[in-house]
Amino acid sequence: MGDTFLFFFFSFFVLFSAFMVIRSKNPVYSVLFLILVFCNTAGLLLLLNLDFFALIFLIVYVGAIAVLFLFVVMMLDIKLAEMQESIFFYLPIGGFIGLIFFIEFYFLFNKEFVPLHLETLSTGSTSMLTLQFYVYAFWAFVLYGFSAPHFAQKFRAYSTHFFEQLRGLEHQAHQNLEYVIWPTYVDSKTPVEALGQVLYTYYFYFFLVASLILLIAMIGAIMLTLNPHRAVRRQQVFEQNARDFAKTVHKIRTLK
């Protein structure tokens, strides 16, 4: 009962905060609601006993990215007048993205999340049966083509024999099901070890690309906050050191 209440509690605030992120006119409030989304998502991960991912959400997303967004928004001094545009201006592109989102969910929930290893039918066996069926049908048409009842009878017999053989192959394939017991593989390692093995073994290219994207984001934040003053007079150190002291320093004698 308690887990169910916490699940609905965190889920409600995740949806509400996500809606307020895109609905709020003030960009600072949007970032604060984004932080609230990450915190409630971490609560949902704790309910699933994924404590490592919950801490990653709090440390990485809330502690780094969301706070970075907040400081960038505050330093850029975004004018609120630009946020007062009509919502119907963004309705076409928003509707298109929403349609793609719901299509993805449709295909996602149509899949079976059962870890089964099904041995497929032999391609050679099915191809030979199909070829045999068409040869028999053509031979029956040649022999009994001018007699419709005899052709229909032979065609029905050949098709029945074909589907019986195909059904036998399917039954044989379904008898060779192999269940993969995933807990025996997952529980043998800690979550950090399993994540590190998968990330640095199979997806290290994506890890490098993500690092490059974060580097570009950091450089972009520096360039956005950089405010060079072109009117400031600066000295060239090399030219100053290369000057001749006797030619640049003059003694001015004042007359009394």
UniProtKB/TrEMBL annotation:
Membrane-related topology note: Multi-pass membrane protein
Compartments reported by the entry: Mitochondrion membrane
Coiled coil region boundaries: none
GO cellular component, one term: mitochondrial membrane
Function: Core subunit of the mitochondrial membrane respiratory chain NADH dehydrogenase (Complex I) which catalyzes electron transfer from NADH through the respiratory chain, using ubiquinone as an electron acceptor. Essential for the catalytic activity and assembly of complex I.
Name of one Pfam family that matches: Oxidored_q3
Known EC number: 7.1.1.2
Enzyme class: translocase
Family (UniProt): Belongs to the complex I subunit 6 family.
Protein's recorded name: NADH-ubiquinone oxidoreductase chain 6
Highest rank taxon of the organism: Eukaryota
Molecular function in Gene Ontology: NADH dehydrogenase (ubiquinone) activity
Catalytic activity: a ubiquinone + NADH + 5 H(+)(in) = a ubiquinol + NAD(+) + 4 H(+)(out)
UniProt keyword annotations, A-Z: Electron transport, Membrane, Mitochondrion, NAD, Respiratory chain, Translocase, Transmembrane, Transmembrane helix, Transport, Ubiquinone
Segments crossing the lipid bilayer: 6-22, 29-48, 54-76, 88-109, 129-146, 202-226
UniProt entry tagged with the keyword Cell membrane: no
